[in-house]
Amino acid sequence: xxxxxxxxxxxxxxxxxxxxxxxxxxxxxxTFGTSTLYALNALTGAVKxxxxxxxxxxxxxxxxxxxxxxxxxxxxxxxxxxxxETETGNIxxxxxxxxxxxxxxxxxxxxxxxxxxxxxxxxxxxESTSVFAYDINTGNRGWEKIITVYDYDGTLKKxxxxxxxxNGFLYAFG
Length: 174
Description:
The protein has a 4-stranded antiparallel β-sheet with strand order 1-2-3-4, with no helix packed on it. It is built from no helices and 16 strands. The protein has 174 residues and is an all-beta fold.
């Protein structure tokens, strides 16, 4: 994997270190069926573990969040959030974002604060964008807030910016 050239549409998104590993994700717009998350030894580049996801990845997972030995990532259609142990690659929990398989998540990169995982994605109303909050320990949804953002010409716009938390406030931009 260290010397592997990424194809067009594949991304090498996560390069955060946790437990002596670097996490790399392959797959994307050109790999409509699968994406793979690798944990590489930070010193040697050797593969410690790999996990392949077969969720439809029209929107590949964005940069996952890592906290206290868990990597949190979001896949495309039908849209799942996964909590994966950084040491072993075992899935601690998986939560489906929508009640149906019609919507894809088109999710932003998540952020973590106060025990919650926040991200923006397609709203469950099928038209707008929502900000979601999930409990990082259980995978249960805390809440969803639909955001209606209009472009300069009055058309409905999807929020695509990654949310962030600062000074006790959650910020999500259109």
